[in-house]
Each structure stands twice: as structure tokens, then as C-alpha cells.
Amino acid sequence: MLNLTIRIKRNDEVNGKRLEAALIDFLTKAGISGATVWTGVDGFGKRGKSIVRIEGLALNMPMLIEVIDEKEKLEPLLTDIKMMVDDNGLVTLHEVDVI
């Protein structure tokens, strides 16, 4: 099995739609078994700090989309996923043992 991890920010968009929603729709239509979207509270990367705090409210938080599925199902999707994410995030892939 493979673990696909996509790191983006909450305000990232593709074609006028929030990127995490577009990715979840794409993964669902592709028949992926499941995905989880995690919201972070702080972070930084090549685009700078991922958070702005205004009186306890956090904006543009880091997000992580995690998918675990079969190699044969995920590999054909990687080019489209990378095109959607573009320079807005980081896509990683590694093998995992599911027990």
C-alpha cells in the first residue's frame, strides 16, 4: 500500500475552488478508498509562515490530506494531483504496511 500525503494551505485554490475540496472530489471520483483532511495550527515552508492570528482566530492554516490505498490505484493519479497542487504545496508518497 502507498501513503499519499499532500501539504497545502487552507486558502489555496484551483480553478476558483478551494484546493482541498477539489482534491477530495478528484480522489472520490477516482475511486480512492478514503482520505482524511487534517488542519494544522502553525507551520512554515518555502511560501513562508502558514498562519495569521487575529484575536485567537487562525487564518490560512496548514492542511494535510492523507490517503492510503493500493499502488495501482494511486500512481495513475499522481500527475493530475501534482498539476492541481502545483507550487502551492508538497506531495509525498511512501510505502506503508497496513495491518
Number of domains: 1
Q: In CATH, what is the class?
A: Alpha Beta
Strand fraction band? 35-45%
- Approximate helicity band: 10-25%
Q: What structural category do the secondary elements indicate?
A: alpha+beta
What is the tally of helical segments? 3
Strand order in space, largest sheet = 4-9-1-10
- Oligomeric state: single chain
Question: How many whole angstroms does the radius of gyration measure?
Answer: 14 Å
Summarize it.
The chain has about 100 residues and is α+β, with helices and mostly antiparallel strands. Helices cover about 25% and strands about 40% of the residues. It has one domain (about 1-95): Alpha-Beta Plaits, CATH 3.30.70.120.
Write up this protein.
With 99 residues, the chain is of the alpha+beta class. Helices cover 23% and strands 41% of the residues. The protein has a single domain (2-95), classed as Alpha-Beta Plaits. The chain has three helices and ten strands.
